[in-house]
Amino acid sequence: MGLTPGSRLGAYEILGLLGSGGMGEVYRARDLKLGRDVAIKVLPQTLGDDPDRLARFEREARTLAALSHQNIAHVHGFDDSAGVPALVMEIRPTYAAIGFRLSSKTVDSLSSMRRDGTTPAESTWDRWTRRT
User: Fold this and answer.
1) Residue 29 lies in a domain
2) Theoretical Cys-Cys bridge with 25: which of 20, 68, 95, 99, CB 3.0 to 4.6 Å?
């Protein structure tokens, strides 16, 4: 996607890139309506036109939004009003939120557990969220 500082994505002003990987780019942004900083994850442009990747991205947003744990960034929303699917999350000072590091296998497992109405044990969360 390659968002630049000062550009806008819907109601958010992009402040800078926090990190990037194979499944997304994460930016620090300012929510202009609520006056708070947030993290925005967008798909790389190479994946943005792939229906399967878009579906996985939306599933990731729904899965993270359904979870509550001290090491998981709170999801504020999923925005595509600017034509760019964007997962909007709380920003953590240490940037240690699991939402930025979930593997596709983990997202699939969590989605499956959510559908089944089960949740992993606390020790499993601790293992998944351990800093590496």
Assistant:
1) yes
2) 20
Beta-strand runs (E) in the chain: 8-9, 12-21, 24-31, 36-42, 75-79, 86-90
Q: How far is the C-alpha of 72 from the C-alpha of 98, rounded, in Å?
A: 5
- Domain range for 118 is 8-128
Asked if residue 86 is part of any domain, the answer here is yes
The set of residues, in sequence order, having a beta carbon less than 8 Å from that of 95 and lying 6+ positions away, is: 18, 19
Q: What is the pTM of this model?
A: 0.67
pLDDT tens-digit profile, the chain (132 residues)? 578 999 999 899 999 998 887 778 899 999 999 999 999 999 876 676 788 888 888 888 888 888 888 878 889 998 887 778 889 999 876 544 444 455 555 666 666 665 666 555 544 555 555 554
Query: For the chain, what is the domain count?
Result: 1
